[in-house]
Amino acid sequence: MSLIAQIINRLYHRPYLLMTNTVTGVLSISIGDVLQQNLENHWTNNNKNFDNVIGDEQNSTKRFQWDQKRTRNMMFAGVYFSLFGHWWYSFLDRKFPPNQKRSVKKKLLAESAMGPFLVSSVFILFGRINGNGFEKMLSNIKSNFTLICLVEWFVFVPVQYINFRFVPSSFRYLYVATFSIGYDAFLSYVLHRNDRLRQRKRLKNESIFD
């Protein structure tokens, strides 16, 4: 066995698996957030109405500025997802024998039920980080719950079928985290959507009174 294979084998087995999954989850969600921030910068540069609001018609193209605080907050979510995912997959494998078709169906049902709850709890986590009150956190969950459920069920159920059916248990979180980069970008968009709307409203009000 080569040195690289030995390192990978050690990282993806106890006692290092939890650490490996946590680092993987944090990297995945960080990449997703930075990609989403780049997309938002691109959307802003192509939104003429927004350019007019901020009064920058002559120099409407804005250089990308990385919001490190936002990515850092997303990293907290990455740690949360990683710890929960590590425990969740271990629990499902103990509860249902791996790789059996009947077990896969039960795991998919459990995953479908748990997904919206897990993501909703992230809104609470972000609310606590940002010092928001319970009513605001609840409002954010209500306004995004349907969208989150649709993405969870229509995107992640097929992904998780392959995961539970074919992927070895030690590599399940790596597989999910790799596919989740796009989902993490979407989650970053949803978590910060209300902040962007409030910013646009504030800038519009400022332009009216100027």
TrEMBL record:
Pfam families: Mpv17_PMP22. GO terms for biological process: mitochondrial ribosome assembly. It is a multi-pass membrane protein. The chain crosses the membrane at residues 73-89, 109-129, 141-161, 173-192. InterPro entries: Mpv17_PMP22. It is found in: Membrane. One of its GO terms (cellular component) is mitochondrion. Keywords: Membrane, Transmembrane, Transmembrane helix. Coiled coil: none annotated. Belongs to the peroxisomal membrane protein PXMP2/4 family. This is Mpv17-like protein 2. It comes from Sarcoptes scabiei.
